[in-house]
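Case study 2.
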Amino acid sequence: MKTIVTGASGALGKVVCEHLEANGHDVAALKGVDLSVEAQAGSAIAELAGGTGIRGLVNIAGGFAWETIADGSVDTWDRMWTLNVKTTLNSCRAALPYLQDGTSAIVNVGAAAAARATAGMGAYAASKAAVARLTEALGEELKDRNIRVNAVLPSIIDTPANRADMPDADTTTWVSTEQLARAIAFLLSPDASGITATLLPVTGKL
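Prediction:
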């Protein structure tokens, strides 16, 4: 069975794919598809699932924006909803027919900022809070099938883009992509068989 990773071309997606492959997953990297469009998400997931079904779904595809409410735009809120919530929702819904009872698991990538937004993080944090509620709701809905749905909530991820945006930051307090990949792999694994509808903070030293 396949483990599908959305946002596979990004800094985190690449590391997650490599880590999962090294740990025995048959990884299908999903990239170049507009997952905010339901039909495109459905077609892409169906093609990757093939006749084998889906062992795991990791929803990494998303986006970020820093913008104050006073000086920002309502369009940014719409964009964050599209990039973070609709992509996750459409991927999860498209995967449902291919998930195997008692075996499959979904891991969504949320954000620690969803618990409390700071200045400039309103639109992003609100969209990631919606991902958290989606995760909890779907986890409850799939309990009877023993299909687990969880989310990781990272703080600042140590990526080249974040280093470029915050050149003076103490990166030793950030979460590495490898640390986050290991947390995702754990939630997909049988070792996490008793965990569902749970939001796992992965916050490094912050």
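The chain has six helices and eight strands.
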